[in-house]
Amino acid sequence: MDMNQYLSMFIDESNDHLQSLNENMLQLEANPEDLGIVQVIFRSAHTLKGMAATMGFEDLASLTHKMENVLDMVRNEKLKMQDYIFDTMFKSLDALETMVQDITGGGEGKADVSSIVASLQAIESGEWTGGSAPVAKVDKQTNSSISNAVELDEFQYSVLDQSIAEGHRVFYVDVLVSEHSQLKGVRAYMVFDMLERSGEVVKAYPSVQDIEQEKFERSFSLYYITTKEAQELEKGIMSISEIESVKLIQLDQETLQQMTNQAAAAVAVEAAPAPEVGKDTPVLDSKPQEEGKAAPAKAATPKQAAAPSRTIRVDIERLDVLMNLFSELLIDRSRLEQLASETGNNDLSDTVAHLSRVSTDLQNIVLKLRMVPVDTVFNRFPRMIRDLAKTLDKKIDLVITGAETELDRTVIDEIGDPLVHLLRNAVDHGVESISERVAAGKPEMGTVNLRAFHSGNHVFIEIEDDGKGIYRDKLLQTAIKRGVVTEEQGAKMSDDEVNQLLFAPGFSTADKISDISGRGVGLDVVKSKITSLGGNVTITSTPGKGTNFSVQLPLTLSIIAAMLVRLGSEKYAVPLSSIVETAIVQREQVRNIHGNKMITFRESLIPYLSLSEVFGVPDFNDADEKETEIVVIRKGERLAAVAVEEFIGQSEIVLKSMGTYLPAIEGISGATILGDGQVALILDPNAFIK
Amino acid sequence: MEEELKVIVFKLGTEEYGIEVDKVQTIERMMPITRVPKTLSFVKGVINLRGVVIPVIDLRGRFSLAETEYTDQTRIVIVGVDDMQVGFIVDSANDVIDIKSSSIDTPPEVVGGVKARYLRGVAKLDDGRLLIMLNLNEVLNKSEIVQLESVEG
User: In the sheet where A395-401 sits, what is the strand order?
Assistant: First the structure.
């Protein structure tokens, strides 16, 4: 049985579960009495354990199992959640995360977790609390309502009971058919066929008829009497294709009785998600058995009862391929448009115009497909802030808004680290210690706001704290001390410019270097990362009130609107997002000021750049012209005029990499392919404004 | 059993050079090249090869040989090393031959003006011709480009 095809599914689902574990654990920490949350956590942990065991990741499974034991005690009120337990639980979650990451990277998911296991064991055995010992027997009444065991009638029960007495093996078997299976009924029939060759199926749910007519979701359960070993059966069943997983629970008389009792007590049981128990351990004592029944049934908290989502998981690579194919289409479209306008055939032009409209719609959809809510990045922050606040002995409330705002996946992938850095910075350097806050008349609890929102063609992510803010003098002092600016330069700077010094390389304002937000090597990295994504970051701050870092990001990176310009025989693309306007200036308007060419634009002097000079264009020089077309570009607040020979027009262009061979070229951010099949280079306006 | 190599043969001036066939992705006729400013003189620019933008270098320039006018015979040999694709402009390319790996000798210090480090060796063919085998990793060495650049700039 090849497990590889399930590996990616396992990783996805494990990450989902870990995320929900983290979230719920945080919730539980806020309301330690809420046993409903414990149930949810327990189920997540349990499912995770089951999956890990099925996939053969023993370390992962055993650690989850230990956590489960502790959780089990908590939910049965044998143990009260306390700080120490929370910390251990969080540590365990971290360890699990590391393991899953290891597996993602192709590893075995092995990790040394002995200290965590020891802590969990200590909690479990009551050594730490000195309280209650683990209890094997679990109060059935508490959990019976969430059971979905298959109900047995009296006759079936006695058959099973007798078989056990006669030394046969009795199994409770749970089979999950792959969701991609086209022939669930056939697969199920093959399972029955295989089982009936070496034993007897006593009872199945849904009924055998229903199963054969495919009247079941993805899983079915049955009671089975045989002489064979669990492992052998499992192997047999898994060898049938499109069977995703199978769980075998060997029953003894006691567990059998319990299961039937539960089933009897269960109200309107749903067949949906099957109970999951580690497959490698035929469960013999009653406690884990009970856990096995605690599968995610409808009895969960209202949050869990979400409507089945109408989504599918798609491999990211396929989306990338789709995107690439679409890019090709776009290039052909521009070619067609060009040809149609040259030939002047009306029918052709009409068809091409229609094609253009359709492909524009298609483009929107393709781009939307790649959009991911920023929540996928934000969701790990609450946990991080909690840990940070604990380490720093601060009280911090992280308020997240706009987590549903969507960004292109490529941006999402890159934005995580810079945001982590900015948040750490806000918690470490922004928010004051509790005593300082009290002295300043602020509430003990500091607030960090993390906001995401759309605006035009950009998404903004803001990180705002209500901490001490930035003091111009202090910042300038440090900057001068570190040699970032001279005293004279500093005196002339506006407050905004002073704030921007935070992003200068080799800068740190915290008097004490902490390992939380680095040694000042961080913020400049943040800045360059965001700039490389085509974004921008600005700081506003009110001393004593707090600081706001605002990160501006482009919606997408792969297709941009650009203005095509020509210089002699060469064509360049200028991203529309950085163009303020285009104009024509007379040669005599270009003035030489202190060796720099400047022009007056809207009552202010802005630098005039000759692109032909910068790029050494062989067959055009703007100095020879009487009138020059200029493109006014913007970087932040600053403007510059770039001289070109001619504007060609506006076009959607597809960003193409120039390969790894060429070193980065200042002023060029990439290349694109035009409608005529030629490559045009894309200008990087940021490089022209220093 | 002796190892046989399939080699693409191309010419720079009168010398014949060889690249293992598995390193060569395709050989193209001369096509429009978009100049890339502010790079080394032997980087001629980028081309659109079926939707992929690929940098093209003049191999004569790369080996500090005199560059010539492009003719009908001029070809762009697209090579791929690791995930890097680069086009070489060569005077002509029109042969694929098998050579025995034992026939490759270590290169003398300078062959046809090309520094020995760019070469893997010189293969002596049965008809007495000499074939200069290129060491692609060195030819495409990026750290050298960066160095050159700092010297020139």
Answer: A395-401, A445-455, A458-465, A546-554, A536-542
* Domain ranges, residue B126: 4-144
The answer to whether position B37 is within a domain reads yes
Yes or no, beta carbons of B36 and A658 under 8 Å apart:
yes
Single out the catalytic residue among A17, A46, A65, A421. Answer: A46
Name which of A333, A658, A660 to mutate to probe chain B: the one with the most chain B Cβ atoms within 10 A of its Cβ.
A660
Convert the pLDDT of each residue in A584-636 to its tens digit.
999 888 888 888 889 988 888 899 999 988 898 888 888 888 888 999 998 76
Residue B153 lies in a domain: no
Distance in angstroms (rounded) separating the CA atoms of residues B100 and B125: 9
A24 is known as an active-site residue:
no
Q: Which of residues 13-42 of B touch A (CB under 8 A)?
A: 32, 34-39
Please write the tens of the pLDDT for every residue from B12-31.
888 889 999 989 999 999 99
Cα three-residue angle A221-A301-A175, rounded to 5 degrees: 15
Whole-model pTM: value is 0.51
Complex ipTM value: 0.85
Annotated catalytic residue A458: no
CA atoms of A451 and A463, how far apart (whole Å)? 7
Question: Is residue B152 assigned to a domain?
Answer: no
Chain B CB contacts of A665 under 8 Å are 36-39
**Cβ pair A532, A517 in contact under 8 A:** no
Number of domains in chain B: 1
Q: Residues A367-410: pLDDT tens digits? A: 778 788 888 889 888 888 888 888 888 888 899 998 888 888 87
The SS3 call for residue A495 is: helix
Q: What is the CATH classification number for the domain harbouring B135?
A: 2.40.50.180
Q: Is residue B49 part of a domain?
A: yes
- Mutation target among B25, B33, B38, B52 for the A interface, most CBs of A within 10 A: B38
